[in-house]
Amino acid sequence: MGTNLRALAAYVTAAGVLTTALFGAPPAAGAGTVPDLTPWQTGTAVAGTAVAGIGKGNGTVGGDLLAGHGIIRPAGIKPPPKTEASAYVVADADTGVVLAAKDPHGHYLPASTLKTLTAVTLIPKLDKNRKVKPSEEASNVEGSAVGIVPEPIYKIDDLMRALLMVSGNDAAVALAEANGGVKKTLADMNKEAHKLQAYDTVAKTPNGLDAPGQRSSAYDLALIARAGLALPDFREYISTKVAKFPAPKDDPKKKKKKKRDDDESEASESPAPAYYEMANHNRLLGRYKGMLGVKNGWTSKALGSFVGAARRDGHTILVVIMHHPGGFWEEVAKLLDWGFAARGKVAPVGQLVGPAPDPKPSSSPLAVRPSPTPGAADAGAAKARGEDPASNGAGATTPLLIGGGVLVLLALGAYGLRRRRRTPGDADG
């Protein structure tokens, strides 16, 4: 753009700003939405909470200290037990206080811990007593599966249990289908993550199977788990040790076995049971005092991940680990023990934030309520007063038109003045 054109653009822009300042303008599209930024660029400090590092700093979600990548711990108490996990969070689930962390906002593959977001998103949307028929695609999903078939024998309730108890990848896809499809469900999941201020999280699959661009963080998984613990059905699913799951009946057309040799009578086939039992994959459930459950996960790329909550003496401690190379159950138990010992005795290092408020639409100051027949009421009133309706209507809009015209003329005049003052040597570029 040449110098002359840039000057004109600048003056016209200035005129537009002045017009907005004088008369107002409608808000820009999407002005009330939360931007899709990294946690170092956006965040919400918890007002009125005495938490170290929360304030006017780097804007990290949950507090400035949580921007660190190393171990973040309070003073005055022994450090948290060692863990091979690349990231973790220990928090008081009741108050949201973060007691200790390591690389809490680091981006990692979540594996099946992402199923917590699937559940938190879909539990409020789907009738748990509704029966569904999974597709062939859902029935053939790779990885851990509960073994569904394309028959209408499953309730949403059954699939949710399979999702959270035995990490059924097939159940996750069947639930997504019941919500209108995988694409819609992923959009709903990502919207829910933003609502919870889990800005590190991007869901690309409903079951946590690795996919390009999919990620989460220990902090986000803590936010999601805390939201889940507020749902009665979620709490029931994660704490169930053993449950019955529907099984398909035998094909009635299946032939009976032929007679065996000797004098054996024809062996009749016994009918398949109407259900089979599935056991929760959480090894701490029933072994660790007060364990409520939540979710574990593993893939060869994500390595081990775990979200767990336990409740003792009226208090709930939440532990999240990510990217663990081996067995983590004992380490998680020790982190829970440390959390219970530290709760209420140390200065917090951060805060699990609450959901973001819904954006409120704002109307333009220039908005005018139209009459049923535009201009008719004003014209009638003007005639009653003995005035000229055309003159009266023009008078109502003239100030705005004149004001806008003056501004444009000012801009053009300034542009012309600048052009006259242009010094030799200026060139179009």
Describe the structure.
By secondary structure, the protein is an alpha+beta fold. It contains eleven helices and eleven strands. The strands form three sheets. Strands 1, 2, 3, 8, 9, 10 and 11 form a seven-stranded antiparallel β-sheet that branches. A hairpin with a 3-residue loop joins strand 8 (291-299) and strand 9. Helix 2 crosses helix 6 and helix 10 packs across helix 11 (389-420). The longest helix has 32 residues, at 389-420. It is globular, with a radius of gyration of 31 Å. The chain starts with a helix and ends in a 9-residue tail after the last helix.
How do the helices and strands line up, and which of them pair or pack?
Elements: H1 3-23, E1 71-72, E2 87-92, E3 97-102, H2 115-122, E4 131-132, H3 136-139, E5 154-155, H4 156-165, H5 169-178, H6 182-195, H7 218-229, H8 232-239, E6 242-246, E7 275-279, E8 291-299, E9 303-312, E10 315-324, H9 329-342, E11 350-351, H10 376-384, H11 389-420
Antiparallel strand pairs: 1-3, 2-3, 2-10, 3-11, 4-5, 6-7, 8-9, 9-10
Helix pairs in contact: 1-11, 2-6, 2-7, 4-5, 10-11
